[in-house]
């Protein structure tokens, strides 16, 4: 399973890539493999302030719909428009082209509370 060391993770299977005061958020390789083929990504929080652990959208797979939980507090700036026509990017490239949202970070101290790759591996029993 692919878990890049430069990312942070949540127990809810989201990953975070911090670039200055902006965070890119997606779901982990583990999460996409458990969900199966992603057929739709629904994000209705663009331009909205959200708190850490709030639901910011959903991913729909062939067999289930799963909520997406914000790893940080902040404002959702952008939804990855590529996912509108190619939601399968979440499966094929979860840490690259398959990112889901870009958000401003409201409280940078929250980043320190996220899991490292090693901590996430332990959380999922890998």
| Name given to the CATH homologous superfamily | RNA polymerase II/Efflux pump adaptor protein, barrel-sandwich hybrid domain
Give the class from helix and strand content and strand pairing: alpha+beta
How many H/I helical runs? 4
Radius of gyration: 13 Å
Low-confidence stretches: none
State the distance separating the first and last CA atoms. Answer: 9 Å
Strand percentage: 35-45%
Function: The glycine cleavage system catalyzes the degradation of glycine. The H protein shuttles the methylamine group of glycine from the P protein to the T protein.
Keywords: Lipoyl
Subunit structure: The glycine cleavage system is composed of four proteins: P, T, L and H.
Organism: Pontibacter flavimaris
Could you write a compact summary of the structure shown?
The protein is an alpha+beta fold. It has helices spanning about 30-35, 80-85, 90, 115-125, and strands at about 10, 15-20, 20-25, 40-45, 50, 55-60, 65-70, 75-80, 100-105.
